[in-house]
Design goal:
Largest sheet: 5 strands, antiparallel
Low-confidence stretches: 87-92
Helix content: 10-25%
Strand content: 35-45%
Oligomer: single chain
Number of strands: 11
CATH class of the largest domain: Alpha Beta
Order of helices and strands: EHEEEEHEHEEEEE
Amino acid sequence: MEKKWRIIHFYGYSAKNIIKIVGLLCHRFGSDCVFCPIVKERRYNGKKRIFYDVDVPLFFGYVFLKVSYDPNIESIFEAEIAVRFQFLCLYEEIEWASVSEDDMIRLKDEHSEMVKNHVIIDTTIQIGDTVKFKSGPFANFTGKILMIFPIKQTAKISTLVFRKETPVEVPINSIERVS
């Protein structure tokens, strides 16, 4: 059975718990089937008046997992997390979506390039955010971010074109987050 990449969004989980979940996924599926990119983010300490860099997930709350199709995988996975991490609250949800192999290869390449060149990113927009196009042929359209490519400074966004959901890749500076 062919394995495909899935993106899992953990709502309401802390970074500490997500790291534990990534460990569980690596143990169960193998480290080559799990991808959770970590990057540097620049922060400011107002008291000491200094900038410092911290390691943060590139897409907070998101983990990429390569698994073969099983209609029950979501419920099995959620049950296993509930058993392993009994301290997690019930309101926390897990959302699943598919990711193309090409997008994953591109994302991994960009992540490697970022780590090699010590790139520091701006994490104000995330996968799943609703955004509005500021300029270009889709000006004033809205859409949902499917994937972000930090090195090229582009985002793949799903938007309605002629009443059909269409993925469009645009520069990050041509979109703005909708509150």
